[in-house]
Amino acid sequence: MRHGLFWLFGLVPSLAAAGPGAPIQWTADGRWLAYTAAGPAERAVPPPGWLFTKPQAGASAPTASPGPRRFRLQVCDATTGATIVLADGASALTSPGWSPDGHMLAFGRWAVGRPDGPRYEVVIQDGLSRQRVVFSRPAAAGEEVAAAGLPSRAVAWSPDARYLAVPEPSEADGLSVIRADNGRVLKTVPGVSFPAWSPDAAKLAMLTTGQASSLVVMDTSFGPPRALAELGQAMHPPCWSRDGRSILAVSRRVVDRGRFSTQMVNLLRVQVETGQVETVAQLASDPPNRPKPVRGVSFSADKDVEDLFSTVDFEGEPSTVVWFRPRTTETVSRFHPFGEVTMRVGSLALSPNSKTLAVRFGADDASGVVGLWDTESKRLAPPEPDDAARLEWITLLIGSAQKLLAAGFPNPTVAGRAVSRPTLLPVPGELQAGQEIQLRLHRIGAYGRPLCDRSPGSAGVDSRLDDFLAEARLFFDVLREDYSAALASLDAVESRTTSSDWRLRLLAARAQVYLGLGDRERAGDVIAYLRTLDGRVPSRYERTPAGVVLTPLPPETSGWARYLSHRLDDQTKGRRRSGGDDRPFRGRGPIPFQGFEPQLRFGPPGMAIPPNGGAAIEPIAPVEGPDVRVRFRPRPQGVPAVPADR
User: What CATH number belongs to 396-578?
Assistant: First the structure.
């Protein structure tokens, strides 16, 4: 057993700074990282039918409503992507800290469901399934609400392995320094947060909380902390230099320049002996007289501060990461790790070898969505997801695609009248090949599609998740313009659909897929059938006090078939102009995307990765409704595929 533990924990912690949300901690060789994730206690799967909603400019992914939280402590092998869950439950968790020898993790836990009431505990994990509580105390009044913010605070283990600096779950913040061997409390400091030990374990740096923060330092005699520098509003843990002579800290200030004021976010270097402060880099500033709230700041650097990655999250502004080299004041690049600036970037953590940048994504500071960005290839890959992470990744990607579709695609019209789209799926040819929005949608599709495939024999039976993944496969296949795969995904969605209205909408999607494949004959047959349905006005029987009433129901997507017939005409004309098989919409396979290659399957042969769920699906019984199947048959030469009255 100890051999197995050493394989997992036999590493030393790195100097990777945490972010505004839940920190990510690397080991010294850059192989393992650990983090705490928080999400809904009951992660409800979005109901079927989200594919048939109209895209909105402010759309978000189909997610469950907020409620009780679920907290998980995870470690991930960055070389294989394999993820192991060490703690999972309703107890709020701090972010973890590695022991100096890398054999153990320490974290704080808000323990609920105890006979004597909630307790705050400090736990040391020294095995895959072995934990020991080294400190425990009853909860104080008001701490239960503050405990929800524990994931944004990390336990700091001193380099000599003697002490643990543990965040307190109080509204006023605070830290306790305890013995790592027996949990004896040596010092409690109220009103401070973000502990960071010096490399020689002789000093502990902290930040005071409030509107104006100060950087303070306490030595291991545990006397009163000594103030080093005023920082304005501090939003990030301090970070010691390799020699222990200086500390990096983030400062946010509003600077009054007479006629206007501006908000500055700077990275500062503070000398420990003298308290002298110098600006290392300006991380961000906002336009004059338009200060926006800063939701978070994150930076991470290598041990020698040769490469520095930072992100500042201004409310309402796109998210980007800046790669900066302080020694030469060179900005290497400004980028988004995934490429979608609407996808919020949270915590950053650079691996000790500077080859991998771990990034959190999502609106929640403690989101479990973590990606690994390769600094050489500039590619992003997620750790191998379980069902919870899979669902979170997919809904995040769907939300980003919805915003692009709402903002970038034209509103379809026929004879000057707006036509509602039956699904979220774009029609082939609506955008010219090579446009930025098309490439962005293709990237989302290429990234999201592999996430929809659960491992064979996965544990768990949840037909709702399988229904959701079936719609997501179709969505991502169309986005990446792999229409052959989209046809198979469409068949799978149709087999699960019991609503006659949804079947009609999927029939329109089938015509779009045939257009993408360049199969004009089948597309024409489907469109012709839909045109005949447009002439019919469905009715609904309603029982009223006056008797049974027949109420006409104009279809929401009336006119869509005529819109598709125009798209078919455009495709046919394009073929004639080119004089042959020009593959106008690249329907024979996915478009290659330069510089991006999803890498979702990790692990050497023989490595056992915990199953992620999976279930057999019971066949869906047929329902009464109109027969929307199209029977393809040879058509005499000269007979048009669509009605001539278009």
Answer: 1.25.40
